[in-house]
Amino acid sequence: MKIFRLKDFEWIPASHESTQSPSVWKKVLLQKADLLEGWVQMVNWCRMEPGKAFRAHYHEDMEEVFLILKGQAKILLNGKEASLAEGEAVIIPPREVHEMKNTGAEDLEYLVLGISMGKGGRTVVV
């Protein structure tokens, strides 16, 4: 059994963000090495300040699921825009360029589950 507590994890910049001024901070809750060998690449708890947006990017072989825990966002997926709110989720297929902005007045918090096709889920910023 592995028990982990959110307070024990540090906030770090998301991999697709500038390390000097990141728009998205994450706590890496689980990584590939923490799980059974298979397709789950990572589980991250993310936080974005009001008005911030993450950079447009895609993942070569990884699907992502974003579950909004708190706040409101607009997501742009290959030119199509949608609104997301607390309790809603979106699935982002591999190779789909995506970006998201916090449109609310408070921090946006969301979980990201990455499911890889076995090649590492490399991130490409566009």
Could you describe the 3D structure shown?
With 126 residues, the chain is mainly β. It has one domain (24-125): Jelly Rolls. 0% of the residues lie in helices and 51% in strands. The chain is built from no helices and eleven strands. A hairpin with an 8-residue loop joins strand 2 (24-31) and strand 3 (40-48). The protein starts with 11 loop residues before the first strand and ends with a strand.
- CATH uppermost class: Mainly Beta
Unreliable stretches covering 5 or more consecutive residues: none
What would you call the shape? globular
Helix/strand structural class: mainly beta
For the termini, the CA-CA separation is 40 Å
- Strand line-up of the largest beta sheet: 1-2-3-10-5-8
Radius of gyration: 14 Å
Largest sheet: 6 strands, antiparallel
β-strand percent reads over 45%
Residue share in helices? under 10%
CATH architecture level-2 label: Sandwich
Chain oligomer state? single chain
The CATH homology group name = Jelly Rolls
Q: Which fold name fills CATH's third level, the topology? A: Jelly Rolls
Order of helices and strands: EEEEEEEEEEE
Can you give me a brief rundown of this structure?
This protein is mainly beta.
List keywords for this structure.
Jelly Rolls, three-stranded antiparallel β-sheet, 126 residues, mainly beta, six-stranded antiparallel β-sheet
Write the layout of secondary structure elements.
Layout: E1 12-13, E2 24-31, E3 40-48, E4 57-59, E5 62-70, E6 72-77, E7 80-85, E8 89-92, E9 98-102, E10 108-116, E11 123-125
